[in-house]
Amino acid sequence: MKIKATYRNGVIEPLHKINLPEGQELEVEFRVLPKTSHELSEKKKEATQTYTALIRESEGWWIGWILEVRGVTCQERTKNELLDTLQITLREILEDETLEVSRRTESESEAVKASDILEFGVPGASHQTEGGFEEVSIDV
After folding, report:
1. Residue 31: what pLDDT?
2. Which fold has domain 49-139?
């Protein structure tokens, strides 16, 4: 008999019901199937999360931070360098299993946008604001 299955958490799971008695021993020979482009794009969608960064130029430097995760603040000479550094820093923090990532709730993120941003001593922001902050999406 030939079946299709997936491998998850150390267990081979058939994609369809198999008519066998419970506890039946089997000899299994398997071949790894290449992922379809649909499966790859779905996997990428599942793995990608979008975060919000507030950024602005100040005295020749670009500064910014991620609203949803505390502690992700960066500074670079150009906007592109800042966006790259924010993405890299966020990815490293999220991937570091030894860190307890402190995530802000949606209401806390909104409060940060509406309040004075103490980290840089500049009035708070949303999209393009009076404080000159720009709201940017960062995908990781």
Report:
1. 77
2. Double Stranded RNA Binding Domain (3.30.160)
CATH 3.30.160.250 residue spans of the chain = 49-139
Read off the pTM: 0.54
Asked whether the beta carbons of 52 and 68 are under 8 A apart, the reply is yes
Nearest to 125 by CA among 72, 63, 81, 83: 63
Reported as a single tens digit per residue, the pLDDT across 82-125 is 999 999 999 888 887 666 777 777 777 776 665 545 444 444 43
Return d(Cα 34, Cα 20) in angstroms, integer. 28
Residue 131 pLDDT level (bands cut at 50, 70, 90): low
Rounded-to-integer distance, Cα 84 and Cα 34, Å? 32
Task: Tell me how far apart the alpha carbons of residues 58 and 120 are, in angstroms, rounded to a whole number.
Answer: 10
What gap in Å lies between CA 56 and CA 117, rounded to an integer? 12
